[in-house]
Here is the input.
Amino acid sequence: MRIDLNGAPIETRARTLQDLIEEHGFADAAVATAVNGSFIPRTARETATLSEGARVEVLSPMQGG
Amino acid sequence: MFYGTDLKSRLMLGTAQYPSPQVLREAIAASGAEVITVSLRREGSAGDAFREILRQSGCRILPNTAGCHSVREAVTTAQMARELFGTSWIKLEVIGHADTLQPDPFALVEAARILTEDGFDVFPYTTEDLIVGERLIEAGCRVLMPWGAPIGSGQGLRHREALRTMRAHFPDVPLVIDAGIGAPSQAMAAMEMGFDAVLLNTAVAKALDPVGMARAFGAAVAAGRTAHGAGLMPCRDMATASTPVFGMAELA
Here is the structure.
């Protein structure tokens, strides 16, 4: 399945957001997630199924003003 | 009080644009700030070092929605920040124009309403407009953050008299000057006028010596706050001698 992960098109076997996070080695507790512009809480990642063309954002704490 | 939290230092410091993580760490300490702002971004190279600084700083974290141009983007970013940082505080920015980075007041009020209803403590980045301020209060904000000048411009208090009016109009609302401050004297002026805090980033991060400048801003904000508490003398048009005339010798 083809999806967008942080703005880059990728091919993935992941069926859920949790699978995707594990597949890409993100530190589970150190990221926040959104799919198609909507926030997905950590507790909902296992039930959040991905579909073709999904836009997934996995964000981390960064410097800010 | 900022949503029930009292702060000894009234300087809030941004964490972006520093020459190195070490300089950032030392600048936070030198400033005395108890609140630092952070953002959410796609993971970069220096992520681990940055998270370690956040942990060690002991500061309260104020996540921002910087770069968001729509209500939806800002609300989603705020929700992500709340989970990641474990705080209901959010510095709400909804940018209306790419060049001036001025807030979009209409989207700002809408996003503020959604977020306060969802339990957030919203720190809205706004202008000195009184009606927008009132709408934000109606939407549930208990703090307002008017700009001093456009973000990163270093112009200081560009609309000083309007800010003075805003201070008088909202006597019981904590007001934080956010953005545009370039020099400690400008931060001190804001505090002398009775503002409750100053939030800045670039003026420290882009100084030749950010740690020294952080210390200068911390001192300026503290001095301005003390001066406001002590009550400034009124201005006069004419001179008035401070040394008494009584008892003066006749030498002419």
In short: The longest strand of chain A covers residues 55-63. Residues 18 and 45 of chain A are 5 Å apart (CA to CA).
